[in-house]
Amino acid sequence: MDVFDRKILSALQHDGRLTNGELAERVGLSSSQCSRRRTQLELSGVIEGYVARVNPLKVGIALTSMISVTLNNHNESNAEDLRKLLKSNEKVLDAYALTGEMDYHIKVVSADLEDLSDFINKVLLSHDAVQNVRTSIALGTIKSSTVLPLDQA
Q1: What structural domains does the chain harbor?
Q2: Phi and psi dihedrals of 79, rounded to 5?
Q3: Which of 39, 100, 132, 145 could form a disulfide with 70 if both were Cys (CB 3.0 to 4.6 A apart)?
Q4: Measured between alpha carbons, how far is 52 from 64 in angstroms, rounded to an integer?
Q5: Stretch (H or E) spanning 96
């Protein structure tokens, strides 16, 4: 990956809808060179996809919560069962396996407190692998970004 690939990635992180012509202007290459490089970045998996960022409040999602989960038993079967649950649930936006006191940290969205309570009680706490959950509700969003610091890579 060279400086032009990084420029292409940086530009696309800020606006994934750029045409190859617009991208070429921003990075200093021809449209055909940008097109080839973009395609190669996609095929190699560096660019995983393109998405639209949706305002959660405008679609009825009022709460964002951070939930820490502790397993009741640290065997591979329990961990795999919980990973499958987290991957398949649309309310779970992000899920991380951790070192330290908690085993997993997940970011969950819900319509309201009742919806969040149902998720915690009926999905997480009812799961055989889960021993304990700790939930914090986000009071506001200070920063939410998908842009990676490519100059540090």
Answers
A1: 3-43 (1.10.10.10), 57-137 (3.30.70.920)
A2: -60, -45
A3: 132
A4: 19
A5: strand 92-97
The share of the chain scoring above pLDDT 90, in percent, equals 93
Distance set, CA 4 to CA 18, 63, 75, 94, 146 (Å): 16, 40, 45, 30, 20
Tokens of 49: 């996809």
CA 55 – CA 57 distance, rounded (Å): 6
- 71, 74, 107, 118, 147 from 83: Cα distances, Å: 11, 13, 14, 19, 25
Instruction: Say if CB 64 and CB 109 are below 8 A apart.
Output: yes
CA-closest candidate to residue 111, choices 54, 52, 65: 65
Dihedral of the CA atoms 47, 52, 57, 58 (nearest 10)? 180
pLDDT band (50, 70, 90) for residue 78: confident
Q: Is the pLDDT of residue 153 over 70?
A: no
Here the contacts of 49-54 (C-beta below 8 Å, separation 24 or greater) are: 50/16, 50/17, 51/16, 53/146
3-state secondary structure of 46: coil
Start-to-end CA span in the chain (Å): 11
In terms of residues, how long is the chain?
153
